[in-house]
Amino acid sequence: MPKMKTHKGAQKRFKVNGAGMVMMPKGGKSHFRRRRSQRVKQQLDKMSPVSTANVKRLLKRVIPYGT
After folding, report:
1. How confident is the model at residue 5, as a pLDDT?
2. C-beta neighbour count of 58 within 10 angstroms
């Protein structure tokens, strides 16, 4: 059976950390940053975990090797 291909768009958007959790970057960082406080902008730079089980199952299919 051939190897599964990684979906390159999902590979760029989602990362799997050492504990196996699927992490994604927070949204709302591209524009209108001037009106936000420095603390809020720093919080937006962090990754957040993907919460629902359905999304995790889908990501295991599109990122089969956890790159």
Report:
1. 87
2. 15
Output the pTM of the full model.
0.68
Please give the Cα distance from 50 to 18 (Å, whole number): 15
Q: What are the angstrom distances between the C-alpha of 8 and each of 3, 5, 18?
A: 15, 9, 20
Of 43, 15, 12, whose CA–CA distance to 29 is shortest?
A: 43
DSSP letter at 39 equals H
- Single out the residue of 62, 25, 65 nearest to residue 45, CA to CA: 25
- Domain, as residue range, for 28: 8-62
When the pLDDT of each residue in the chain is averaged and rounded to a whole number, the result is: 84
| CATH code, 23 | 4.10.410.60
pLDDT at 39: 94
